[in-house]
Input
Amino acid sequence: MSEPILRAINLTKSFFLGETIYAVNDVSLAVAAGEFVVITGPSGSGKSTLLSLLGGLDRPISGEVVLAGHRYSKLSENGLALLRRRHIGYVFQFFNLINHLTAVENVSLPMRLVMRNRREIRERAEYLLETVGLAGRRDHRPTQLSGGEQQRVAIARALANEPKVVLADEPTGNLDSKTSAGIAELFKRLNEEHGQTFVVISHDDMFHEYADRVVYMRDGRIEKVV
Amino acid sequence: MERTRMLEVAPLAAANVRRHRTAYLLLAALVGAGVLSFFAHASFVQTTGEQFKEWVRPLRLPWPVMAWGQRPLPHDLAEDFLQDRQMQRAWLGTILWVNTSRGQACLWAWEGEPWETIAKTLVRGRVPAPGAPEVLVDAGWADRMGIKPGDEMIISYLVPGTRLRRFAVTVVGAVQLDTDFPAHIFAISAPFLPGRNAACAYPREGLHPRALAEHLERRYGLVAWHAETPYYLADTLIRAVSYPGADALRLLYLFVGAGAFTLALLSFLDRRREVAILKAVGVDNRSTALLFLWEIGLAGLVGLLAGGVTAHGLARAGLLWSVPPWWEQLYGAAVTLLVLTLAVALPVGFASQATVNELLQERRIPLFRQRVVPHRR
Output
């Protein structure tokens, strides 16, 4: 395995709900560049919390996350935002596209934060939409797209700034099985052809077939890695 | 190269303003109304500006600062001006504005004359018996200056924001300000600085302003710019009502603030998910705040511009008595922007400090937040 690009070191995150609940409890994980890692486990096992911590959307109460040499604990909120901008792509279960923007505008959004040339942004957004099989739907708004198509747009958006790692939280959780298969294949193709690193949370066995490693979680801890 | 924070969210803000243009236009209209109220207030209390200039006069500020009618006219400049205008004399003076039952009146108080005395005379004085509407001047001043009946005087006046107007009048007599009230035009303005003089006509008792305007136009070819002033109440009532009324107009700013607060809060609540997405793709807290500030600021600037243009238009049409000087206008704009900023501080604070998970899961956003410092267990 090559050098890890993303490392979680003894991560712990707890919530107080009458009593202290450890959503993530002393979890360590290393993800190599170009690796396809799937995290799975029952509801409440801490998968999504772990992904939030890996993506810098939340802070652990102890432990450390290191992405491409950047220690999250050393970064301010704005520093984390800049890290997300440059190095992390997100794919959410409910797509989370901005409804009043077209597909190409949604994909352009992260690029507008780092690039100045509008034509370059537009061309790259169109290329990404073509990559995910939506070349003909670029001027459609999310409400005019099916669930699978919306998720493809979200994937294209996640890839916009060529992130070091794409984190996906139940990307097929809201899709039918046929569409889910298409999305899983798209992830694998992007992983194989572009060397994109993926960390995907999924209950879906389809992802297990494509994954380099499957991490099983239970009660906030890593149960096993296959 | 990373784009600057100011610019990165500006297109999104513009798009949102376009989408919710009705709400933002409403806010702009409120701001515009606030600005109009400011102009109206300033129009009522013009004397405040005069007082200010009295205060700054001893400072002997440089030319551009003091240019607004207060800079003592150098002798050579006065000569040039006289030559240019083919006039015989020029006097330096101060314009005094007062509110009366027949509208706002102004009086040229010559150098050295305590204007408070004239103001008291003016509002206490009685209107003389009906007579020919001619120019009367103060007897003592006329003696000192060698002005006699039949002399021609140039009255030049300017409603700030409009072009300079000048006209010739004939002095038909002199009155004692202490005993008799000037008849019809008691504001006589000697030309001191080009474009900065002011004078106004004042109808005698029982004469409708429109009738005076017609007379002035017929007799002297004048344009009586405020003869249409609709106020025709008792002096006391006007004085009692106008100033507090003008102050009450400023309450509009409360509505401006409330409107901006509501709009920013609703905008934030309506776009929790959008803000979460922006944060997830890397928009930082300050840019998130800027997003909302851009939107409110855009509406505020449109309102400021619209209110200012309308106020100047109203002044040009004679419906506002005067336009405050530029520094008061700047002050008004600054106050408006301050009101807007304070009003949106809370919603903008929520938007910028909320985390992605709080926004997506619609969790409560804490007003104060403790920084979580990771530690070794």
Observations:
- The interface with chain A takes residues 1-3, 8, 11, 15, 19, 273-274, 276-286, 355-357, 360, 372, 374-377 of chain B (CB under 8 Å).
- The CA atoms of residues 53 and 70 of chain B lie 7 Å apart.
- The longest strand of chain B covers residues 165-175.
- The mean pLDDT of chain B is 60.
